[in-house]
Design a protein that fits this description.
Shape: elongated
Largest sheet: 4 strands, antiparallel
Distance between the termini: 31 Å
Number of strands: 10
Structural class: mainly beta
Strand order of the largest sheet: 7-8-9-10
Radius of gyration: 22 Å
Strand content: 35-45%
Order of helices and strands: EEEEEEEEEE
Number of domains: 2
Number of helices: 0
Length: 146
């Protein structure tokens, strides 16, 4: 588990706009937060190293730790209702940049229930499309790893 993780509610803001920060800490000690300008974030010994400049702000301070469950990655749950029930054919399409292909299978999109379904996954064998039949058998098409 990552002991402390945080994110901003917006990617960018203009001067005077409000931004909120969300932090989850698995520790039992307070944590310190501040705003910095990142000059170099490369820890490589042959680089300039990690360099930053403090930016004074209202965020500066110490805060009590509290654990909040964080679901890493981007996802959406879509209630399809009856929309996919009687389809005879369909197309799945996703533009992805698989940065961790050697990890165990990772779902890109899926809709599987007791009546069958489909899935698009990425994993050690590359991208794979699966059709899950109502009897539980599967048809798989794998494009391999390039």
């Amino acid at each position: 588990m990552i002991p402390i993780i945080g994110y901003a509610d917006k990617l960018t803001v203009a001067p005077g706009e409000v931004i909120s920060f969300k932090v989850s800490s698995a520790g039992d000690q307070d944590y310190r937060a501040s705003i910095v300008r990142l000059i170099s974030g490369d820890p490589n010994p042959l680089s300039p190293g990690i360099q930053f400049a403090d930016i004074p702000s209202d965020v500066d301070g110490t805060y009590p730790s509290r654990f909040q469950r964080v679901k890493l990655g981007s996802y959406a749950n879509v209630d399809t209702g009856e929309a996919l029930k009687d389809l005879k054919s369909f197309t799945l399409s996703a533009l992805i940049w698989p940065t961790t292909p050697d990890k165990p299978e990772q779902g890109v999109m899926a809709k599987i229930d007791a009546g069958g379904g489909f899935a698009l996954v990425i994993g050690p064998n590359g991208a794979e499309a699966r059709l899950v039949h109502a009897d539980g058998t599967e048809t798989r098409v794998n494009v391999g790893k390039h």
